[in-house]
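Data availability (excerpt). The following record was deposited with the supplementary files.
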Amino acid sequence: MTYVAEWKAHGTTYQVESDTAENAALKARARAGGYWPTIIVYRGKKMDRVEFTKATMVKTIKRLTNSRNGNPRYKIEFENGVLGTTKPDAGFAYAIWDGMKQVTVKYYYTQKGDCVITDLTEHNGESTK
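Predicted structure:
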């Protein structure tokens, strides 16, 4: 099965192919000069939601406005270059705190290229989910 990573830079659309979605995204990052452009990964003609899981360090945590239901939301930047927001009304958002350092993060990219964080687990073994 072939996955395609696509991104735009300087008005040009670029694509790379790989056997896994994660490898396609990593190849795209390498070809884009090491930074994380907005990368869309898909398989065939249909856009698939590909969820990534990474062990990384938290760089910054910013509190956003609450969801419509009054639940907390955060924008979190990680040392591996991922910048995403927590999924609205996610229960694990209540356990996010400024002192988080080593974590495992699960996230996916929307069709618009936004990064959505679906889970965050501290490396001490306690899940924030």
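Summary of structural features: Residues 3-42 form one domain.
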